[in-house]
Amino acid sequence: MTFMMWSPLHIFMIISPVLLIIILYQLTKDNGKEENRRVGIILSTILVGLLVLRNIEIWMNKGFSFHYELVPLQVCHFANIVLLYAFYKRNNTAFALAFTLNLIPAYLSVVFANGLENYTTIINFRGLAYILGHIGISVVTIWAYMVGFIQMTFKTYLKTLRTMLVLFFSGLIINNLFNSLLNQPSNYFYTQHPEKGTPLEWFYEFGRMISIGAFDIHPIYLILLSIFGSFLTFVLYFTAFALPTILERSEQIKRS
Fold first, then answer.
1. What local confidence, expressed as pLDDT, does residue 239 receive?
2. Which residues contact 215 (CB under 8 A, 6 or more apart)?
3. pTM for this entry
4. How far is the C-alpha of 10 from the C-alpha of 197, rounded, in Å?
5. Which DSSP letter does residue 74 get?
6. What residues contact 243, with CB distance under 8 A and at least 6 apart?
7. Which helix (H) or strand (E) holds 215?
8. Phi, psi of 63, rounded to the nearest 5 degrees
9. Is residue 200 a contact partner of residue 220, using CB atoms and an 8 Å limit?
C-alpha cells in the first residue's frame, strides 16, 4: 500500500488526532490523577515500543550495522522518551518540553507527511510507526494537557526554552560528527536542513551553508529556526497557560 499526499488516507490521518483526543478524554476525564498517570505510562510505553520495532526493522535492513536512524534524537522520536519519562517521574519540565517542543513537529509531520511517499509500502513497522507514532505523540500530549498533567509558569517556560536550545545546538554538533566521522547525514532537530515540503524550507533559502573545519553550518537558517521555534513555543505557553490566568484574574477583578 503506497502513500499519496492529500489522499483520503492522508486526510484521515490529519483529522484522526482530534477524534482520538475526544475519545480518550471522554474515557478518562473522571479518573483520578494516579489512574490517568498509569494510562499515560501505558500509552507512552506503546509509542516507545513502536519506535523500537521501527529501529529493529531499520537495523535489519542495514545489514545489522550501526546507522544514525537508530539513535532516537529526531525531534519526534525523542518525544516518545520524553513523554514516558514525564509520566513515570512526574516531571514538570519533561511535560513542558513535550508540550512546547514535541507537539508541533509531531502534528506537522502528520500534515506534511511527504516522506511517506518514498516508501514502497507503508504496511511495515517503519511506515506504521511513522503514522501511529506521530499521531500518538499529538494525542497523548494534548490529552496530558487536558487532564492537568502539564502545568507551566513563565519560569518553567524559560527553563524549558533553555533546555530546547541546548538540545538544538547539541543536535548541530552531533549531526556534524556523524557526517564527518561516519559519513552518515543525520539531521537531528533539523539543524542541517529542513524537512522537505515544510514551511521551514523558506528559512533555508536565506544565506548559505558554510564549512568551519569539518563542520557544515548554515548560520542564517539556524538563527531563523531558533527565533521561529522560540516564538512558537512562547505562543503555545501564552495561549495555554498565561492567557487563561490573565482572563481569570480579569474576571475576578470585574466581580469584585
1. 94
2. 176, 180
3. 0.89
4. 15
5. S
6. none
7. strand 215-217
8. 70, 30
9. no
